[in-house]
Amino acid sequence: MWIVPEAEIAGLLGRQESFDAVEAVFAAMARGDAYNFPVIRESIGHADALYGFKSGFDRTGLSLGLKSGGYWPGNEARGLTNHQSTVFLFDADTGQAKAVVGGNLLTALRTAAASAVSIKHLARADARVLGMIGAGHQSAFQLRAAVEQRDFEKIVGWNLHPEMLSRLDDVANEVGLPFEAVSLDELGAQSDVIISITSSFAPSLRDAQVRPGTHLACMGTDTKGKQEVEASLLTRSRVFTDEIAQSITIGEAQHAVGQGLIDAEQITEIGAVINGTQAGRQTAKDITLFDGTGVGLQDLAVASAVVDLAIEQGIAIKVAL
Ligand code: NAD
């Protein structure tokens, strides 16, 4: 089997490869060629840690395996990242272990790729202002991937902790776009595309703050109880997701569905839009909302791509199990 260390991922997998892998696996999910197994996530009663695994199988790409890891709040004090993950791939023909891959950077790349895929397929072609809600670790990856999808001219950002906004300013500089820190009212009034990537358990963005024609990628809500936007916004939106089962249980739609504001049947898998079997945006006035919950198949897709590249470039380490 092969090992691809975390430190090698950055040199192997770029945004385009991540985008292609995630777009392809969303399409495979909607065709019924790939499916996620039920997610396990538990508080383990040690080190305040949340641990779990996400797994699945893509019959088209032959990616079989799981991402295992979670959140260790004490890690930062040890000089480690709080979120930790590792991907394990298995040979779909034999069940033998195929690869162990560092999953931390891959998680950021595949999450950013998901919102970028949603922008490609759902945002207005003339979108010019990108609004960012959240300025944590993931936000920089989100921003870099998003600006590649439209001819954005400006980035506006809001964060509950304003001192963190320098991260967005730095990335905006890196990609050559002006950045302005704004209130949520201003953010909604100016933005054509809004990405939210926070760990909030209460809505930041209000329904009334979002104007017609906006595309939203709600990427932070991946757990029961988390919420980034007011539930009533989903009643005005055409709602899309990576996987409906996750969207209504751990995604942003859990609140609107739980309060009876929308039905699961009103939510469309983005893969169906990619495949052309369901409509995406229909008018310039539509509000489109992508509920990006994060599925195991995304991890397997980018991990498979990185293993192929690592073997090709002689970077993967071969070990006998
Ligand atoms: P981080 O800890 O680096 O940053 C957290 C962000 O949330 C910061 O901007 C912080 O200011 C903001 N925040 C914290 N409490 C808030 C509140 N009460 N209201 C509004 N904002 C608040 O985290 P990160 O690594 O950037 O991840 C952000 C979120 O994305 C997390 O919830 C994480 O679980 C989620 N995530 C989702 C996916 C997915 O596939 N959907 C993948 C990775 C991470």
From TrEMBL:
Tell me where on the tree of life, at the top rank, the source sits. Bacteria
Supply the Pfam families for this chain: OCD_Mu_crystall
InterPro entries, per the entry: BhcD-like, NAD(P)-bd_dom_sf, ODC_Mu_crystall, ODC_N
- What name is this protein filed under? Ornithine cyclodeaminase family protein
